[in-house]
Amino acid sequence: MDFDLTWLLWGLPIAFGLGWLASRLDLRQLRIDNKQAPKAYFKGLNFLLNEQQDQAIDAFIEAVKSDPDTSELHFALGNLFRRRGEYDRAVRVHEHLLSRGDLTKAERHRAQHALALDFLKAGLLDRAEDALRKLDKTPYEGQALLARLAIYERTRDWKRASEIAARLNELGQGDFGSRQAHYLCEQAATLPADQAEPLLRQAKKAAPDAPRPRIDLAALQWAAGDFEGTWRTLARAAQKVPAALPLIARSLADAAKATGRVAEGQEILGTGYELFRSLDVLEALASLESDPEVTRDWYVRHLENETSLVAATRWLAGERLEHQEFHGQIQGALEHACKPLTRYRCAACGFEAKQHFWQCPGCQAWDSYPARRVEEL
């Protein structure tokens, strides 16, 4: 049977035409896809700028479906889920990113950091810690260490917090000497005196200008009956950290009486009072006076320079009134009115407390409580 070349002559142009048509259809579909993906992306961005997060999420999901390999869209979607509190969905997005084999090293580090933030925001501290550890030796190491530090503070794991603070110091992320001193003091507070004292002395070396290690060490010495050591520690603290004198004034006065150094105590406290006009220093000075009238004169001197309801109330407590039978009610009313003025106030969040805190119970900030009372601010 002879082969008919006519079919070959017709077949070649037809095959060429079909191939050309198929390529045009593929290009057309590609253009459509490329137009749809940016359109959905920009629509989502517009919703986001208008704080319409629900619509933004829908638009980004549409964009991700059109181009599932676009990592930036996944990051945007995961961050939106986290901001909305949908942490499980944010985790799934970022875990999906980490499972991909085509991510660059920078994108993988970024996805790992985002996943750690998801766990942190969700309160899954163990999983957050594990995720943050994987960021060591990456561009996110500093941020990861700060996040781990916050976790250890929150869980009161002071030993590991101290280790992280030391690493942050080495990386040049700031001066964490004062923070390290607090961590050592927190550890010392839970230990017997013989184990606590070395930690407090280590805290002094970590932050020579921090008052807390000296104050805690003096309290330890006082409890052990070492009044000479207490006096030396507090006298040195008054010289080294004068701004903290209101916090140590009463203890300094007690140590001065216990060691027979009343005159020296009066000199230190008198000099400090002239600098700060503090009520705590004033009352410590008053406690060193044996004559009640001299004590009351200190309050008068304070009132000459400061308008103080607290000082006026203290002075009035020893005054004999014309209607003495009403003295108790009047004094009680004044003492009640003074209570809010004798509190300490956090400079970061405004949380007020009867006692001075090294770490604010409200906002968790360190060293945010001034040594002065509300009336003196």
From TrEMBL:
Residues 344-368 form the LapB rubredoxin metal binding domain. InterPro entries: CellSynth/LPSAsmb/PSIAsmb, LapB, Rubredoxin_2, TPR-like_helical_dom_sf. Fe cation binds at residues 346, 349, 360, 363. Residues 24-377 are cytoplasmic. It is a single-pass membrane protein. It comes from the Bacteria. Pfam families: Zn_ribbon_LapB (PF18073). It is found in: Cell inner membrane. The keyword Cell membrane applies. Keywords: Cell inner membrane, Cell membrane, Iron, Membrane, Metal-binding, Repeat, TPR repeat, Transmembrane, Transmembrane helix. SUPFAM superfamilies: TPR-like. Gene3D superfamilies: Tetratricopeptide repeat domain. Its main location: membrane. Belongs to the LapB family. Modulates cellular lipopolysaccharide (LPS) levels by regulating LpxC, which is involved in lipid A biosynthesis. May act by modulating the proteolytic activity of FtsH towards LpxC. May also coordinate assembly of proteins involved in LPS synthesis at the plasma membrane. HAMAP family: LPS_assembly_LapB. NCBIfam families: PRK11788.1-3. This is Lipopolysaccharide assembly protein B. It comes from Ramlibacter aquaticus.
